[in-house]
Amino acid sequence: MGITADESSRFAAVLETHSERLVERWTEVVAASLRGRMTQTELRQQVRELHRALRSALDDGRFDLSAEGSAALRSTLVEMSRSRAQQGFTASETAVSVFSLKSALLDVLDVHAGDKQTLADYVAASAVVDELGLFTFERYARSREELLSEQAEQLLELSTPVVKLWEGVVAIPLVGTLDSARAQVVMERLLQTLVDTGSPYAIIDITGVPAVDTQVAQHILKTVVAARLMGAECIVSGIRPQIAQTIVALGIEFGDIATKATLADALRHALRMIEQSRRSNGSGTAGTRGA
To answer: 162-179, pLDDT tens digit by residue?
Structure first.
């Protein structure tokens, strides 16, 4: 898809000669398709930037969207695509902002008069607009994917909060399925919290986990091992009867990891262990002094 240097030059001349009329008509057509979701002033400014960038790219000689001379035009289209994706516009609503230039060109070019040169120039200009529209559509799709990926990561972090229950005790309540990606986030957030708080005990509450299979159990065990390497002990709470039966049926071994039925039980266990540790340290100190 491309046009000759002469066609690029004539297209640039049309944009220059009918600048204001094109921008106004282009803005009107786009505004009608967006049904008031953008202000007229904002939309006109965006259209004017597109018009200016396209005019500059055409001045570079034979139009080539991938050329260095079209860098400003590509940047303008990318920015428009990204902002439209963030604002919740559809891909069609975004692409029509480019394709609407064809309607504006029809208003300034006397295509219906039957002049072959004018008709040929309109066809050439339409080819350029089509290329810009496809580029915009692709960039919108990429921006939308990036946006969804960022939102998914944010939701993943929000769904794995680590809370401080007591001095020396933190907990991470898990809700929903624990897959590999989420397990990694759980481990990272728990370990970072242990570093930040210096807590010797961490409770992993799986009350909200619908089912525990071998994979989920492995994720939990890896998190416990990682916490132990940081000098903290983990307690797994939320072991409901159904989950307990599943764990036994699967032959999963939690070894010496403390498990409790509820988060409250796990907290009581952690506080009891902290108290025992304090007494032990106190007795050791007293014995040393007496000696």
So the answer is: 889 999 999 998 888 777
